[in-house]
Amino acid sequence: MTEQSEVYAAAYERLKSYSAVAAEFGVHESTVRRSLQRREKRLDPGIADALERTGISPDMARFGYRRIKDQDGSFNTVFWRLPPEDQQGVLDRIKDAMADVDALPPITAPAYSDADLLTIYPIADAHIGMQAWGRETGEDYDTAIATQRLREWVGQVVDLAPASETAVILGVGDLLHADDQSNMTPASKHILDVDTRHYKTLEATIDAMKAAIEYAAQKHRRVHVRILPGNHDRHAYIAVLMALANRYEGNDRIKVQSVPNEFFVQQFGKVMLAAHHGDKAKADRMVHFLADEYAEIWGKTRHRFLWTGHLHHHKSQDIGGVQWEQLRALTAKDAYAAGHAYSARAQMQAITYHRERGEIQRVKVGL
């Protein structure tokens, strides 16, 4: 019997479209795409047998050297390499994976919310995936503790905050402790104490963020979500951001800001809200940058606020018309922090603003 992939291949030659083939056979487009991709990657039986006898997997055999005999009887060695997977192929695989994500269950909108209020929930330096041993650092911390803390603390501050119409769930960088499976910081290559596999950490982080966002959506009519990169998760944050953007795509109450910009800036009436992880510039320089780059918002606002994280301890200062605040982290201390006598306390807060009067209330939870 002819394999289904061969049937799909014949139909694709005729129709020149994955979607058209899927429609003809009554299957999802991703089913056709994956079947044809597997077909293209099948090895010749002779090659497969040779690889098996030499103990080399197909992935290991992506490049190598081969000794060939020329017509004159001499031997030459040539290097060969399989072509790299194109970027569009990677994007197509991500799209296919996302196609099977479950739809968001309905979330009942609150019966009442105050349109003159906005509450921001800054999540600074959660470092999910970090491993801390209590006997060494004074407090245990791992992926399970971190995600449970995020869920519980967001839940507590949401319960205590007023019923503002708009909420902002704001990741202020270093949501994840490691950027990839190398378990080193991207720039400095410092070795990190990690709890588990990177894939598992990403999965747990996304689940915790979904829980936080959807809990906030029960109290606030509109929820804006923004995740900023940190020096620990400079690339990995994108996976969290895209997963959340996919989950809430088309939702009229939850909006994920998929913006390739390390600054968060939003206007709310006469209030300017801004944030950056804080690892690339001093606060006064960032204030000057905001005044220049976002001059229109600056000119229309009276109350301006800038949040940073990165250093894990609290600091606040009025700088040129902006109230800058360095946020405390959600994370516990790791061995490096404990060994260098850092003593910051973990904290989460919710800050509420009136569109005319600026900050009117804040609530805090912590250790």
Derived structural class: alpha/beta
Instruction: State the CATH superfamily name of the largest domain.
Output: Metallo-dependent phosphatases
The helicity comes to: 25-40%
- How many domains, in number, for the residues? 2
Question: What does it look like?
Answer:
By secondary structure, the protein is α/β, with parallel strands linked by helices. It has 2 domains: 4-99, no CATH class; 114-366, 4-Layer Sandwich (Purple Acid Phosphatase, chain A, domain 2), CATH 3.60.21.10. 36% of the residues lie in helices and 23% in strands. It is built from 12 helices and 13 strands. It has helices at 4-15, 18-25, 29-41, 45-54, 87-99, 134-137, 143-160, 198-216, 236-247, 283-293, 295-300, 335-339; strands at 63-69, 75-81, 114-123, 164-171, 222-227, 254-256, 264-268, 271-275, 303-308, 315-319, 322-326, 347-354, 358-366. The strands form 3 sheets. It has a 6-stranded mixed beta sheet with strand order 6-5-4-3-12-13. It has a 5-stranded mixed beta sheet with strand order 7-8-9-11-10. It has a two-stranded antiparallel ribbon with strand order 1-2. The longest helix has 19 residues, at 198-216.
Question: Secondary structure elements and their pairing?
Answer:
Layout: H1 4-15, H2 18-25, H3 29-41, H4 45-54, E1 63-69, E2 75-81, H5 87-99, E3 114-123, H6 134-137, H7 143-160, E4 164-171, H8 198-216, E5 222-227, H9 236-247, E6 254-256, E7 264-268, E8 271-275, H10 283-293, H11 295-300, E9 303-308, E10 315-319, E11 322-326, H12 335-339, E12 347-354, E13 358-366
Parallel strand pairs: 3-4, 4-5, 5-6, 8-9, 9-11
Antiparallel strand pairs: 1-2, 3-12, 7-8, 10-11, 12-13
Helix pairs in contact: 1-3, 2-3, 3-5, 7-8, 8-9
